[in-house]
Amino acid sequence: MASLTRRAAILQKQKLVTANFRRKTEKEFEKAHFIAKRSTSGLATVQRKIDSSKEQLEDVSGVLHHKLAQQESIQRLIEAAGLRLAEEKEAQTQSEQEIEFAESEEEKNHAQTHLREISERINDLVNEIKQRNKMTSKVTQALDNLQKSKSKLSSTIQKQTHTKPELQKLIKSSKKNSDRLAKQIASKTRHEESVKRQFEKISKKLKDIAIKRKKITASRTKKKTPSRRKVKITKKKIRSKAKKATKKIHKKVSKASKGKRKIKSRFSKVKKALEQKAKSKKQK
Fold this sequence. Notes:
Blueprint: H1 2-100, H2 105-224, H3 228-283
């Protein structure tokens, strides 16, 4: 019995220790699983950001290419307008000379009309060149902004690309740790169940022993103590004996009281007789 009790206490302690270890391992497993899940989610987020940044970079590169082509086109138009402006200025000089050296009024009028047309074309070309220069400055500003965006996106893609291997490494180590902890949990759970079964068997044996002992003690007490019926009979006998004894005592007390009354009456009679004798002696 004592050895079983000690064994039950040891198993109870082992059960508690094993349960604590299992819960601790489960917490570590949940932590490792959470890290792996979060890292996987982070990796997917990084990949989405990389893809988005690449798409933006492609868009920016397309716009940049378009703006560069626009800048080149405007530059060519400005150069062409500059050449035409130089030609028109030469024609203007020549027309002014024709007016100066005109021999008739008709030639002079014709030259003046031609000069006015040249002047209008020169003004148009000057305005065109001014507008083209304004467009060039706007395009140049846009190109600068696009170059900055492109550089920023390229830097972001590079950083995110460097982050991927770290996350992949963390995911790999977390999964490896999760697998190891899962095996430990399974082993500790099996051990806990084994200890629990052993403890239940010993507890059952102890209960059976306790029940047997109770039965033995109950049977012994039944032999020692009389039955209820016997107890009732003895109680009745005791009561009857007590009643008889009290009756005897009452009888003795009543007899004694009667004797006392007789003695008192006799004593009073003797006392009266003595008193009468004493009175008679005095009278004589």
